[in-house]
Amino acid sequence: MKKIKVGMVIPTWGQQCGVADYTKQLIEHTQDQSITVQVYSDVNPDLPSVMRKDGIDIAHFQYEHSIYDFTALYQILTALQQQSIPIVTTLHSWSSELACHNLLISGRSCIVIVHSEQMKQLCLADGFRQEQLAVMPIGCQSFPLQPADKTRKLFTINGHPSIGFFGFPFPHKGIANLMDALIELKAYFPDLKGYFFSHYPNYLDHEHPYYSFYQKLQTRFEKNDYLIWIKEYLPEPAIVNLLSTMDMNVLPYVEHNQKGISAAVRLMLAARRPVITTNYLYFSDLKNEVFKMPNAEADTIASSICRVFLHSSLQQELIAKGDLFLKDNSWEKVGRAYREFYKQNLSKKAGEERR
Predict the structure, then answer these.
(1) pTM above 0.85?
(2) Gene3D superfamilies from the entry (predicted)?
(3) What is the 3-state secondary structure (H, E, C) of 86-155?
(4) What is the largest CA-CA distance in the chain?
């Protein structure tokens, strides 16, 4: 049987970007003797002709609107459609304010992949077709965990409790709210420390609006020495081992006009410590594997941390359910699902051409 050749389009390939990290895992766990993947990061109008010369069977776009030039993307998708190369688009973020972008993706893609049922419903309400939407989970990876005491000693993690955060220092991640909550809790837990594993990505320059937020955070951290900011871009095994030394980890994302499913929470689950999140779309693929807060207000975050910290049975329940989620959504299982997905869609195209 002929190998299926997938052209994977990701403009931030090799950069410090969550979508690029996701794509790397997807490729590693999907390629086998029946599927081969070729990555395209140079997104320009010549891409369709390059793909045609390379014998690409399916063009798969990893889409987040900020990493694409809209005009170039319009030209590329239109040309691919004219060449009858099936277009698959994974929608990593969605916004009702991006009407032209949404119309382009829905109009040119054979299949649009989303990562939760709630995300699918948003797309349907915005005019995407039922038959073109597919829900595919983000894969989870397990990591060997070093003894927590050894890691704590090595990295001088000595808070009681120790509260962890992981993700880029962007406003909608809720970092400022978490800082406010920890400052409030310091009065009740004098030995409390917060550890923020948060790197400013190299694909954003100092002119980006997020950079001014980054500078304001810096000032706040300098005023509170028990809130510790680890800015290095660490490999995932190191991140997970550091998160495993926390009493709990928190992702207090706030509502934002651009919505997507969190990949960071999977690394927190892999650390096998209790996880607290907000009850927003970012975490809509999770149920009781995490403790969900109704909002990201500092008082709500503080009370949620207290509730989880003071109830060991709740902690163990969250960890156990998180372990099941990791197994049910392992990258190995997701990779197999994508192999079947590519084969089915190519067979569907062949059947349509014969008619």
Answers:
(1) yes
(2) Glycogen Phosphorylase B (3.40.50.2000)
(3) CEEEEECCECCCCHHHHHHHHHHCCEEEECCHHHHHHHHHCCCCHHHEEECCCCECCCCCCCHHHHHHHH
(4) 73
Relative to beta strand 291-293, strand 111-114 is unpaired
Tens of pLDDT, residues 303-312? 999 999 999 9
Taken in order of first residue, the domains within the chain and their CATH numbers are 4-139+330-354 (3.40.50.2000), 148-328 (3.40.50.2000)
68-102 tens-digit pLDDT? 999 999 999 999 999 999 999 999 998 888 889 99
* b/e sequence 125-151, b meaning 16+ C-beta within 10 Å: eeebeeebbeebbbbbbebebeebeeb
Give phi and psi for 160, each to the nearest 5.
Answer: -145, 95
Residue with token string 């089915």: 344
Contacts 24+ apart (CB under 8 A), 283-286: 283/251, 283/253, 284/116, 284/117, 284/118, 284/119, 285/115, 285/116, 285/117, 285/137, 285/138, 285/261, 286/325
For the record, the structure tokens of 308 come out as: 């989880």
Structure tokens at 147: 């003894």
Count CB atoms within 10 A of the CB of residue 198: 20
Q: Which tokens is 341 given?
A: 């997905």
Letter string b/e over residues 174-193, b meaning 16 or more CB atoms within 10 A of that residue's CB? bbbbbbbbbbebbeebeebb
